[in-house]
């Protein structure tokens, strides 16, 4: 198409936001505007839902009416399906924001005799688009044509023509396709879609399901290439990026007490940074949960809300055990400051846990979240899955300025167990508890392995749990087994290595 | 579901079992559309001996009619009577498959 004014335009690709939480973020703003996006995945992977959300959000939030050519579900059935998400298709249809056209291609009802093309489909689509001045189109799932019609060569040519037609009319389209055995889609739709391909996956590992989304290609846009776990719940799809693209959360300088004055004392008497993440690792019976309970107790004593996710013990068990060491949590539960959420790690997949945590945080607005322990999550879903989940969780909590504490069980003789090492980079503060037997006398020890951005003691303290909770005592010198560089010491060294920069050379002299 | 206008125009005295009401969907005067109509007329003349009516719907003029009969391919022939509704897509060049597909038992 020749243009009247030839000029070089460095335009960035225009985007059509899907309105799906997280997806727009990993797709650099949305789907390519005026182009066709292929969403492929197996049965029940959520591709139809993604397509419908794209359409409904487009109509409701972005002023872009949409047409859905549905090859699988009737209008009534589709409306019923999405009603549970709070989408009122009938109302949207009445207001001419949405138009659903159920296309049935039943081979049993029709025979073939001689040449044909799919002009009927084109006419229906064009008519629907014109009727509501649509800007968005969903074809779900156009592969049904392959089962309804025999001439697949003709179908392929027509599909190519159809996708071209969509682009010629500047329609942003989502086309869904069933996952194939070796190819992305059963009928190779990806061959016709050049701009954007999104693959959805629903896999079950050790009886636990996890949904994942991956942007296979996105021409002209930098996009996240990871597999992003996503959730489907009553509010539809939410993709939670593993790493937020920008580490944009504000770092707080406010401090919160740990509830143990001697532990606060090890951090210049002030405690953790508000909104920071704390990892507590230790072998069995070293007092991780007690430490967490002390922190919860102190939080509630300030009149703040604490949310405690218990993956190992029931709330009543925790209340009883902590009561026996002088930490009375029950009053806080009664005053609705302390909320327990106990469940088996295996009861739902990681996505489910993440969803549950997000929901409860949104509802209860806590200032402190405790997860006790994360070890069980790792055992059910592997280190990678657990790490990515924790990373998203930590990011989320930091953005909300919520201080988080995670406990992790390590095994004797293997203090920096892989779990802890894998997740420790996410953590601002890492407290290690362990059993030790110097001079044959067993004792529990506590020390900081790191605590970002604050002065902290690197000495080992002896930890005792009595009827008054946790107490720490200074260990006589000579027995401190750990000497490790803290983060604070590492950083200045890194800085000086950058001093070779031309602007800086003078200052290093 | 179906457009009722067609059945309303049905001659009142006709017996549904021996009257054939056929509708051919086309989109403009394309070679396939023209061929389909020619082929259909010939088949009807040979097999149905006047007990039929052919209605041609040009979807370029009436796009809203495509939905009612679930038209995707062009040309599509729909046997609206006698029931059940049957469809044949293509330019109807294969007479045998039209006869079988429409279940055209010769009216003799």
* Coarse morphology of chain A: elongated
Mean pLDDT of chain A: 82
Gyration radius from CA atoms of chain B, angstroms: 13 Å
- State the total count of DSSP E strands of chain A: 23
- So, CATH architecture of the domain at 20-90 in chain B? 3-Layer(aba) Sandwich
What is the CA-CA span between the terminal residues of chain A?
63 Å
Largest sheet of chain A: 9 strands, mixed
The strand line-up of the biggest sheet of chain A is 5-4-7-8-3-9-10-11-12
User: In order across it, which strands form the biggest sheet of chain B?
Assistant: 2-1-3-4
> How many discrete domains of chain A?
2
What does this structure look like?
- The complex is a heterodimer of chains A (509) and B (108).
- With 509 residues, chain A is of the alpha/beta class.
- Chain A folds into 2 domains: 15-108 and 117-239, Rossmann fold, CATH 3.40.50.300; 255-496, 3-Layer(aba) Sandwich (Rossmann fold).
- In chain A, 33% of the residues lie in helices and 25% in strands.
- In chain A, the strands form 4 sheets. In chain A, strands 5-4-7-8-3-9-10-11-12 form a 9-stranded mixed sheet, sandwiched between helices.
- In chain A, a hairpin with a 6-residue loop joins strand 20 and strand 21.
- In chain A, helix 12 packs parallel to helix 13 (375-399) and helix 13 (375-399) packs parallel to helix 14 (418-424).
- The longest helix of chain A is centred in the C-terminal third of the chain and has 25 residues, at 375-399.
- In chain B, strands 2-1-3-4 form a 4-stranded mixed sheet, with helices on one face.
- Chain B has a domain at 20-90: Glutaredoxin (3-Layer(aba) Sandwich).
- The termini of chain B are far apart.
- Chain B is built from 3 helices and 4 strands; from the N terminus they run H-E-H-E-E-E-H.
- Chain B is globular and about 30 Å long.
- Chain B has helices at 5-8, 31-47, 95-101; strands spanning 20-26, 52-58, 76-81, 86-89.
- With 108 residues, chain B is of the alpha+beta class.
- The longest helix of chain B has 17 residues, at 31-47.
- The model of chain B is unreliable at 1-15 (pLDDT under 50).
- The interface between A and B is medium-sized, with 24 and 35 residues.
């Amino acid at each position: 198409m020749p243009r009247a004014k030839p000029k070089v335009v460095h335009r960035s690709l225009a985007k059509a936001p899907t309105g799906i939480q997280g997806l727009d973020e990993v797709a650099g703003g949305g789907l390519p505007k005026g182009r066709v996006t292929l969403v492929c995945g197996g049965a029940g992977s959520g591709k139809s839902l993604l397509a419908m959300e794209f359409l409904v959000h487009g109509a409701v939030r972005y002023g872009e009416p949409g047409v859905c050519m549905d090859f699988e579900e009737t209008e009534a059935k589709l409306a019923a399906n999405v009603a549970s998400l709070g989408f009122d298709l009938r109302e949207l249809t009445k207001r001419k924001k949405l138009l659903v056209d159920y296309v049935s291609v039943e081979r049993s009802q029709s025979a073939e005799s001689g040449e044909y093309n799919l002009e009927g489909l084109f006419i229906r689509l064009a008519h629907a688009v014109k009727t509501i001045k649509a800007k968005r189109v969903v074809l779900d799932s156009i592969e049904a044509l392959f089962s309804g019609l025999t001439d697949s060569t003709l179908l392929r040519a027509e599909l190519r023509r159809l996708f071209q037609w969509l682009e010629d009319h500047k329609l942003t389209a989502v086309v869904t396709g069933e996952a194939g055995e070796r190819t992305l889609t059963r009928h190779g739709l990806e061959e016709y879609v050049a701009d954007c391909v999104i693959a959805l996956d629903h896999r079950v590992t050790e009886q636990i399901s996890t949904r994942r989304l991956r942007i296979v290609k996105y021409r002209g846009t930098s996009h996240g290439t990871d597999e992003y776990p996503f959730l489907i719940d009553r509010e539809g799809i939410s993709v939670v990026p593993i790493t937020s693209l920008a580490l944009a959360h504000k770092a707080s300088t406010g401090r919160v007490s740990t509830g143990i004055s001697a532990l606060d004392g090890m951090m210049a008497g002030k405690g953790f940074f508000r909104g920071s993440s704390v990892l507590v690792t230790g072998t069995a019976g070293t007092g991780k949960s007690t430490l967490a309970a002390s922190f919860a107790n102190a939080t509630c004593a300030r009149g703040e809300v604490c949310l405690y996710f218990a993956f190992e013990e029931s709330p009543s068990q925790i209340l009883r055990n902590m009561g026996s060491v002088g930490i009375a949590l029950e009053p806080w539960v009664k005053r609705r400051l302390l909320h327990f959420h106990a469940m088996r790690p295996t009861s739902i997949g990681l996505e489910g846990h993440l969803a549950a945590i997000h929901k409860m945080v949104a509802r209860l607005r806590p200032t402190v979240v405790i997860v006790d322990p994360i070890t069980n999550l790792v055992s059910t879903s592997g280190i990678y899955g657990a790490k990515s989940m924790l990373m998203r969780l930590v990011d989320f909590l930091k953005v909300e300025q919520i201080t988080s504490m995670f406990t992790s069980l390590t095994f004797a003789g293997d203090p920096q167990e892989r779990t802890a090492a894998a997740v420790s980079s996410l953590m601002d503060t890492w407290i290690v508890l362990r059993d030790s037997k110097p001079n044959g006398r067993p004792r529990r020890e506590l020390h900081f392995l790191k605590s970002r951005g604050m002065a902290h003691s690197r000495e080992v303290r002896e930890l005792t749990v009595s009827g008054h909770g946790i107490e720490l005592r200074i260990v006589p010198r000579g027995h401190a087994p750990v000497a490790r560089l803290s983060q604070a010491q590492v950083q200045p060294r890194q800085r000086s290595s950058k001093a070779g920069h031309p602007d800086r050379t003078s200052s290093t002299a | 579901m179906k457009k009722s206008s067609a059945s309303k125009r049905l001659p009142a005295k006709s017996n549904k079992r021996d009257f054939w009401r056929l509708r051919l969907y086309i989109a403009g005067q394309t070679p396939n559309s023209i061929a389909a109509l020619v082929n259909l007329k010939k088949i009807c003349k040979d097999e149905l001996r006047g007990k039929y009516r052919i209605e041609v719907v040009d979807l370029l003029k009436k796009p809203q009619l495509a939905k009612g009969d679930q038209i995707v391919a062009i040309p599509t022939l729909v046997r609206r009577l006698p029931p059940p509704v049957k469809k044949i897509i293509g330019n109807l060049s294969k007479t045998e498959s039209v006869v079988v597909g429409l279940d055209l038992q010769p009216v003799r």
